[in-house]
Structure formats: C-alpha cells, structure tokens
Design goal:
Elements (H helix, E strand, L loop, with lengths): L2 H20 L9 H18 L2 H15 L7 H18 L12 H11 L4 H50 L4 H55 L4 H8 L5 H12 L1
Helix pairs in contact: 1-7, 2-6, 2-7, 3-6, 3-7, 4-7, 4-8, 5-7, 6-7, 7-8
Amino acid sequence: MDISTALGLVSGAVVLCVLILMGGDLRMFVDVHAFIVIFGGAFAATLIRFPLSSIFHGLPLGLKFAFSLRRMTQRELIDEISNLAEVARKQGPIGLEKVETEDSFLAKGIRLVADGYDVDFIRDNLERDRDNFLTHLDEGQKIYRAIGDCAPAFGMVGTLIGMVQMFANMTDPSKLGPYMAVALLATFYGATVANLFCLPIADKLHGKLVDEEINRTLIIDGVLMIRDAKSPSVVREMLLAYVPEKNREEMTEAAAA
C-alpha cells in the first residue's frame, strides 16, 4: 500500500476537522444543497467530457493504483532479470518454466520465452499489453483531474445560487442564514474536493504512469535479451541505462561483490 497517499488524505481530513471543531461543530458544515451542486455538477460535467465506460473503469482503477505500490523496484527488476538470464543460459528457455516472479508483467514475458515464441511476437504482445495498461491508467488520472478542475467552478456556481437566493429573500431574515451557508459551503466543498482529493490523486497517478512506462519498457528489453540468449552480464549492463546515473555505480559494485 502507498502509505503516503493514505497519510496525506488522513492528515488533510484531520486538519480540516480540527479547524472546524475549534470554532463550532461539524454539523455547521453539512449542507445537502451544496453537496448536490458540487458532486452532481462535477459528475455531470465529467460525463460530458468522457464516455460512460471510461468513467466507470477509470475511477476505480485510478483509486486502486493511487493507494498501491509496485511490488518490484527498478533495481529489483534488473536483479531478477539478470538471474533469469542466468537460468536461461544454464538450462535453456525451458528452464524458465519453473521460475516464479512477483511481477505479473515480467512473468508473462518469461512465459512467452519459455514457450518458444519468436522475438517479434513477444515484443508486439508485451508492447500492446504495456500500452493498453498505460492508456487505462492515463484515463484514470485525466478523469480525476477533470473532476478537480470542475469542483471549484461548481463551488462558485453554488455560491452564486446561494447569493441570488439570499438577495431575493432579504425581506425574510430567517432565510438569510441558510442561503448564505449554501453560498459559502459550496465554495468550501469545491476547494476541498479539488485540492485535497482529486488533483493530488491525479498527480500521483501521473507519476505512477511515468514509472510504469519505464519499468515495463525495462522488462520488455530484458525479456527480449533473454530470448536472444544474451549473457547475464550484458543484460545487466544494458538495463542499467534505466537506472539514475547516481545509482548505477552502486549497483555495479554490488553485482561485482
């Protein structure tokens, strides 16, 4: 689990609750009208921007990956692929059938090598799988970013509606407070939904999309080199290009030791 996402959301919620309770109680900040304006309006605008299938697929997928961590880092992937290259050199591609790995994408590539498929087939299959995954992840981050863009705007819409209702009922003082609450809470909801939840999640998904693109491309290159029967040292040396330069020397020394 990506603890930073959960910790950030919980910390933000705690800060808001503390500030609210310091000057009143939570019930003061609950308003159905403002809730409908923000969530109903943002959802409607998102429906216009994206197909319904993309929304129902992208929202849960984005939320899942915002809270999940990749099982293997780039360094661990390089070590794992180098070990697999060693197995393939000693036992041949058939020896890879008995090898298990935590990364499902790498496991798929190794299975294709073990089954004896040619290089072009393996490359096309893995690249298509990678591109489809990245497309779905990109859909998720775009949907959360769209909601984050819409929420403050609909907060302003809710504020304007509340102000119009308030000025239209100036003769009845008992209605001024509720209408003003709608006006202010709509802005509050919009800013909170956008800046504490949707936009941070969209940024987190964008970062993970970039990482996944690098990691899966690394895996594809490693699998193809294993298919071409490259030596483990060559495989490691070539894959080190995916690691930041400051960490390459450390990994090289560790491998030599």
